[in-house]
Design a protein that fits this description.
By secondary structure, the protein is α/β, with parallel strands linked by helices. It has a domain at 48-166: Rossmann fold. Helices cover 26% and strands 31% of the residues. A seven-stranded mixed beta sheet has the order 5-6-4-3-7-8-9, with helices on both faces. The chain is globular.
Length: 171
């Protein structure tokens, strides 16, 4: 099954000149979605990890089933103000504005090997900010995993020092 067929480019969304990678056709096809989970699980196995961290909200779509399949804790990385307890914060330059993300301070313990998961690596800034949060809390980044990377933005270059894997490669 060629999963790239399930992730079309939507031109000029959300603004002119942007080619948005739409994951909804993949989510709308249970065999394709299952195949993407199976593929990401195979990639994840190459990066020994103790827990999985995922970005709000689309990263949750893959991370939650993978955490369930592997019986590992799931650490949500949320936008500022969404977590109810003490949280570590990191701000980065998003594609359209500054973004602050948070992780509960007790979600990562020193030495925890954490696998970061998101749907798409675009500029790499959000993934890099998530890595900084994990390291700020004393954990290590086992790897950065995504469904795909937007080739023209070369976001994996901003993740030097961390292993990066994508199921569909650079599109």
């Amino acid at each position: 099954m060629d999963l790239t067929e399930y992730v079309p480019v939507v031109p000029d969304f959300p603004k002119p000149g942007v080619g948005f990678r739409d994951i909804t056709p993949l989510l709308n096809d249970p065999p394709a979605f299952r195949a993407s989970l199976d593929g990401l699980q195979r990639l994840a196995a190459a990066h020994p990890h103790d827990r999985i961290a995922a970005f709000d909200a689309r990263g949750f779509l893959w991370a939650a089933p993978l955490a369930d399949r592997t019986a590992l804790p799931l650490v949500p990385i949320r936008k500022s103000g969404k977590l109810p307890r003490s949280a570590a914060r990191e701000t980065y330059q998003g594609e359209y504005s500054d973004v602050t993300i948070e992780i509960h301070r007790d979600a990562i313990q020193p030495g925890d090997r954490t696998l970061l998961i998101d749907d798409v690596i675009a500029t790499g800034e959000s993934m890099a900010a998530g890595a900084r949060l994990i390291e700020q809390l004393g954990g290590t980044v086992a790897g950065c995993l995504a469904l795909l990377e937007v080739e023209s933005l070369n976001g994996s270059a901003r993740l030097s020092g961390h292993p990066v894997d994508t199921l569909l490669g650079k599109l």
